[in-house]
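Notes, p. 3: input format for complexes.
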Amino acid sequence: MPKITYIDYQDNSKTIEVANGLTVMEGAIQNDISGIDADCGGSMACATCHVYVEKEWFDKIPKAEEAEVDMIDMAIEPKKNSRLSCQIIVSDDLEGFTVTTPEKQS
Ligand code: FES
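Output follows (106 residues plus FE2/S2 (inorganic) cluster):
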């Protein structure tokens, strides 16, 4: 199981093991990570799972599809490295993957 690091806007970080096949959002929900609410349960309809992906990782993961890009536009304070954590599938390739949660989502 890869270790995923979640950092909040105050720079507090938690590193947890997330099972392959789950999403980065599901790993957060199962481990009470603040700042990721995932109100829609992963159906890409809420943007409350919005995260900023560390630059070194952003280009390594599959690019966001158009529907995700549209939903990110509705997220709070989107940036160039914004993604919806419910659309990032965990695999061994994500060992060390790191995301930061937006301040206003906390
Ligand atoms: S959980 Fe709602 S868009 Fe990701």
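The first helix runs from residue 24 to 30.
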